[in-house]
Design goal:
Blueprint (H helix, E strand, L loop, with lengths): L1 E6 L2 E7 L11 H31 L2 E3 L5 E3 L3 H7 L2 H32 L6 H9 L6 H11 L5 H8 L14 H26 L3 H9 L4 H12 L1 H16 L3 H6 L11 H10 L4 H26 L4
Antiparallel strand pairs: 1-2, 3-4
Helix pairs in contact: 1-13, 2-13, 3-7, 3-10, 7-10, 10-13, 12-13
Amino acid sequence: MTTVLKGAGAPTRSRTQGEPRRRRRSPRPAIIAIAFLLPALASLVLLRLAPAAIALVDSLFRTSILGGTTFTGLSNYADLFANPDFQNSLAVTLLFAVIVNPLQVAAAFVLAVLFTRRAAGSKFWRSMVILPIAVPPAVSAVIWSVIYRPDGLANGFLAVLGIPPQPFLTSPYQSLFSIIVLLSWIGVGYWMMFLIAGINDVPTSYYEAASLDGASGWRQLWSITFPLLRRPLAFVLVADTVSNFLVFAPVQILTKGGPNGSTNLLMYDLFTRAYTFGDLNKAQAEVVVLVLITVVIVAVQFRLLRTED
C-alpha cells in the first residue's frame, strides 16, 4: 500500500508504508565529546599556549629598573647570542643532548629485549630497573650526591677495581657525564616500559616462522623486532629528547651549573637569568630559543623515523 502526499505547488512524493523515516543526526554526541575534551583543552590553553604567547611577547620588550617597558624587537635575542655565558650554555646543552638521548634509548632498548626473554629472575631485575621512577628527581639527586662524594659508594666501588678516587661533580671534565649517569638511572626504566609493551605486541608467529627458516636470534632481532618497534622507538626518542631539554633539579642540587659552566644547561641558565639577575625579558627570550631548538630537533627526528603505513 502506498500513501500519496500532495501539496499545493509541490511535487507528489510517495512513501511505502512501513518504510522507516530518516532521523536527523543529533548533535548530542558532539556536545558530550566537547564536554569531555573541554578540561584538557582549557589546560592546554592556560598551561601551554598562553604562557608560550606571553614569553614570546615579553621577549620583545625590555623593562627598566624604574618599571618602564619599551619595545626593543629582537635586541634581547641579539644580546643573548652575544653573551658568552649563553653561548657556553647552548653548547653544553647540545653536547648533553647528543650524548644522553642515544645512550638512554639504546640502554632502554637492550633492557627491554633482555627482560622480554623468559629467563629466571627477569621479572625481579625488571622491577629493580623500574624502581627509580617512583623516586622524585630531587630525591634522586640527593641520593647521588652521597654516591658521588669523595668517600661515597662510587669511589668505593672504583677502589675495589684498583682505580683511584674520582672528583665526579667537582671536575669540569666529569661533572656533565656524572649528571648523565644520574638521569639515565632515573629515565632508562621509564622508557624501557614503553619498549617492552611494543615488543610484546609483536606476533610470536613471526619469530616461529623465522626460527623454522633457521634465522638466528640476532637476525630475528634485526629483521623482526627492530623494524616492528620503530614507532615505539620514535615515540621514546622524541619524548626523551624533550624531557632532557627540560632538566633542572639535578643541576640545581648537585652542581649549580658548575664547575666552570660545564653543567650549565639552558633550563638552569634561564632560571639564573630570571631569578638571580632579574632579567626577565632575556630569560623569556631564552625560553623561546629553547622551545625552538626542541621543536627543530623533534621535527628532524620525526622526519628521520617516519615510516610508510
